[in-house]
């Protein structure tokens, strides 16, 4: 998933955390606002993402020769969800929930910190320069800030995502569910590289996907007449 799915929630949470001095909100990024609002938004959205990603991961490895044990007998995503609940109960759909919680909380704090600071300083440079500040420039800033935010997100939390996938696709109910124990096991077998399995394709996807999502978000905000400080 991409961290930009938290945009709306994060936008409103920032209004709760933002300090107001003299009746005016500061336009400069403030870590004491960005980090808790983004982390809280990620924590909330993790409860939606966990069961949906569990189904996605189990469907993806089904019928493959992956080292991860096969999941068999799923005819559709709905069938996978229903069979998971039938065999493991409702809590089974939230297997890997703590790992998803950590990934989204930490990842979104990183994403929105990078996004806000890159956006702020690029706008600052343009204001001090002679360049005309137009819609095309705004789009360019959105592409760079959103793309770099996405790269920062996945560079930080990819090991947690690797652990989450292993936890969610393990067929044995008694398998490890502590992400740090899973990562320790991976590290002992494959080193740091094993913890960052799939980093290349993930980064290649992260930049354009998050850049497009942020530009779409900012255009929508502008069309709705909502100021995005």
UniProtKB/TrEMBL annotation:
**Where is this protein found?**
Mitochondrion membrane
Q: PROSITE patterns recorded for this chain? A: SOLCAR
- Alphabetical list of Pfam families matching this protein: Mito_carr
InterPro entries per the record? MCP_dom_sf, MCP_transmembrane, Mitochondrial_Carrier
The record's listing under Gene3D superfamilies reads:
Mitochondrial carrier domain
Q: Can you name one GO molecular function term for this protein?
A: L-ornithine transmembrane transporter activity
* Coiled coil (UniProt feature): none
**Membrane topology for this entry?**
Multi-pass membrane protein
Q: Please report the residue spans annotated as repeat (Solcar).
A: 29-121, 137-223
Predominant location category? mitochondrion
Give the UniProt record's GO annotations in the biological process aspect: mitochondrial L-ornithine transmembrane transport
Cellular component GO terms held in the UniProt record: mitochondrial membrane
Q: Which keywords appear in this protein's UniProt record, sorted alphabetically?
A: Membrane, Mitochondrion, Repeat, Transmembrane, Transmembrane helix, Transport
Query: Signal sequence: where?
Result: none
- From which domain of life does this come? Eukaryota
Tell me the protein family, please: Belongs to the mitochondrial carrier (TC 2.A.29) family.
Q: What is this protein called?
A: Mitochondrial arginine transporter BAC1
């Amino acid at each position: 998933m991409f961290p930009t799915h938290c945009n709306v929630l994060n936008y409103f949470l920032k209004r709760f955390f933002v300090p107001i001095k003299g009746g005016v909100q500061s336009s400069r990024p403030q870590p004491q606002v960005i980090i808790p609002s983004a982390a809280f938004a990620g924590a909330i959205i993790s409860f939606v993402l966990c069961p949906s990603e569990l189904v996605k991961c189990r469907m993806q490895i089904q019928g493959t020769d992956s080292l991860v044990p096969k999941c068999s007998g799923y005819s559709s995503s709905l069938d996978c969800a229903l069979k998971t609940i039938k065999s493991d109960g409702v809590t089974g759909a939230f297997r890997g929930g703590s790992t998803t919680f950590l990934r989204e909380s930490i990842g979104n704090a990183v994403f929105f910190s990078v996004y806000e600071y890159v956006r702020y300083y690029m706008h600052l440079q343009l204001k001090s320069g002679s360049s005309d500040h137009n819609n095309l420039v705004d789009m360019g800033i959105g592409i760079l800030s959103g793309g770099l935010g996405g790269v920062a997100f996945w560079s930080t939390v990819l090991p947690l995502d690797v652990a989450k996938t292993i936890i969610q696709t393990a067929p044995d109910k008694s398998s490890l569910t502590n992400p740090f124990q899973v990562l320790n096991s991976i590290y002992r077998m494959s080193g740091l590289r094993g913890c960052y399995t799939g980093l290349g394709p993930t980064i290649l996807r992260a930049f354009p996907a998050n850049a497009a999502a942020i530009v779409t978000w900012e255009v929508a905000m502008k069309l709705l007449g909502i100021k995005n400080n």
